[in-house]
Amino acid sequence: MDSCFHGSLCVATFYKYLKFSIMRSIFSYWHFDPIVILFLAVFCVIYLYAIHFKLRSQSLYFFGGILVIILCVASPLHFLAKNYLFCAHMVSHVLLLLIAAPLLVAGIPKENRFKNFFLKLATNKIRIFALCWFAGVGIMWFWHVPYIFNEATSGHGMGMMYLQWLSLLVGGIIFCWPVINPYREYRIPPLSAVLYLSTACVFCTILGLMITFAPLGIYSHYVNITDSYGYLNLIRHQWKISAGIDQQAAGLIMWVPCCFIYLTASMAILINWFDKKELYSVPETAAINN
Q1: What is the DSSP code (8-state) at residue 27?
Q2: What's the gap between Cα 22 and its chain centre?
Q3: 225: Cβ contacts below 8 Å, ≥ 6 apart
Q4: How many other β-carbons are positioned within 10 Å of the β-carbon of residue 271?
């Protein structure tokens, strides 16, 4: 009787250890692709050249953006996104477009070697701002059209994935440029910036809802999973993430976090605008009273 009890205890202990080992192995999937590392290294060298190889306070933002890119393309998040979870795929897209890209732009100091090029981008404000909006919002819609999405994830090699990452990053940089570029005189006016961001929020909401309530299987890659690494049972039965829940979570990630970022930025712009308006109105009021 005691031997049976001890045997059961050993089996249970071994199962818990095995479960922990599997979990640990998933989160140890870091893969540093040589092409990605080379691209990031060249990008950092160009940045350092642009700032005359003198680090500024803004450089923290730039290298923070580089770290976010690495998280998206080399970490276990990428492993899960590529092989198992639509929601992990969506998290990486949101991070590239709305976190990494703005950090890279925020890291550009006003004085740099490419200043003249950057200033030329503001020759036609209305047209440029409209193109920037369509670049940022359009690229997210483009990659989540079901046919394009399924083609991009159906095993065409890393080339399509490189294109996806690069386009999201470039689209994010173009989108946020009118709002946070280092030259305040060429930024979009505050109330226009709020409209710019709010309409982006609306379109991300529509896309998120479409993904959430789309028929299961329309994004076929995450329904017909080839379980090459043996983690599908863990994800489906222990993490309790079914294909339906995964797709709904992906849609909600497109909707809620994206809108939170857009609306938070809008509120920050409004608060800054009100503070400056109040600052300038105080001397005028004092002058009238005198």
Answers
A1: T
A2: 27
A3: 83, 84, 232
A4: 11
Question: 34-69, pLDDT tens digit by residue?
Answer: 999 999 999 999 999 999 999 999 999 999 999 999
Q: In 3D, which of 178, 206, 177, 175 has the Cα closest to residue 192?
A: 178
Rounded distance, CA 139 to CA 243, Å?
A: 25
Mean pLDDT (the chain, rounded) = 86
Question: How remote is the C-alpha of 226 from its chain's centroid?
Answer: 26
d(CA 136, CA 100): 13
What is the pTM (predicted TM-score) of this model?
0.86
Q: What are the tens digits of pLDDT across the range 89-108?
A: 999 999 999 999 999 999 99
CB contact burial 255-269 (16+ within 10 A = b; e otherwise): bebbbebbeebbeeb
- Mean pLDDT across 125-149: 89
Q: How many helices (H) and strands (E) does the chain have?
A: 13, 0
d(CA 90, CA 249): 9
DSSP, residue by residue, 146-168: HHHHHHHTSS--HHHHHHHHHHH
The dihedral through the CA atoms of 110, 112, 118, 120 has a sign that is positive
Tokens of 170: 């470039």
**Rounded CA gap, 151 and 148, in Å?**
5
Better-scored residue on pLDDT, 78 or 2: 78
| Single-letter amino acid code for the residue at 200 | A
Q: Are 104 and 150 in contact (CB under 8 A)?
A: no
